[in-house]
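Project outcomes to date are best conveyed with an example. Our students and postdoctoral researchers have been running inverse folding experiments weekly, and each run begins with a structure described purely in tokens. The record below, which covers 184 residues, was selected by the lab manager from last quarter's runs and is presented without edits.
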């Protein structure tokens, strides 16, 4: 599943919390610095993929007439071009491989910055981070549904997409994350 930019901070917080709770990794300077490293690396990864997808869209737009003449499926062509340019943009297309690499980079950057130490194998420490990413991605849609359900019970229902709705949604979303132990 694809990470959205708006979820980067939440995933980073979950990573820091899961590392702390694991008992296998020692945080030398607290949760926040590790969460910041994780967020920065997640944002960087999402931005790389966004840049790649923008380039692919530009290429498709430039060749729209030819694709229409040849009756080429836009979705298939998008994927083929994305696959071809992925390496140039530093994007790993397999989400499992991408999140594994991301977990490794978060662990290494945090360790090199003396933010954490671990006495278990590097792979085991990395898997804590990978598991946090996976768990968040598996649960965020359910959390969004819970929040939407709560908002639907408001006497004065805010209009979906309005600033008021977004503020209420964000507040309730963060409350739900806290209840589930996924927020600092």
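After processing, the design step wrote out the following sequence:
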């Amino acid at each position: 599943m694809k990470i959205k930019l708006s979820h980067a901070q939440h995933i980073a917080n979950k990573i820091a919390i899961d590392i702390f709770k694991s008992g296998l990794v020692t945080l030398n300077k607290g949760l926040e610095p590790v969460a910041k490293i994780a967020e920065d690396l997640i944002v960087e990864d999402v931005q790389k993929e966004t840049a790649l997808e923008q380039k692919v869209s530009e290429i498709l737009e430039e060749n729209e007439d030819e694709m229409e003449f040849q009756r080429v499926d836009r979705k298939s062509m998008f994927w083929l071009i994305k696959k071809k340019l992925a390496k140039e943009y530093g994007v790993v297309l397999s989400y499992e491989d991408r999140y594994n690499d991301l977990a490794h980079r978060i662990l290494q950057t945090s360790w090199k910055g003396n933010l954490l130490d671990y006495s278990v194998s590097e792979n085991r420490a990395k898997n804590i981070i990978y598991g946090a990413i996976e768990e968040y991605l598996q649960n965020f849609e359910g959390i969004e549904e819970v929040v939407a359900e709560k908002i639907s019970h408001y006497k004065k229902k805010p209009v979906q997409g309005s600033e008021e709705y977004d503020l209420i949604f964000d507040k309730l979303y963060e409350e739900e994350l806290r209840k589930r132990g996924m927020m600092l």
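The chain has one domain: 5-133. The first strand starts at residue 25 and ends at 27. The training component of this project remains on track.
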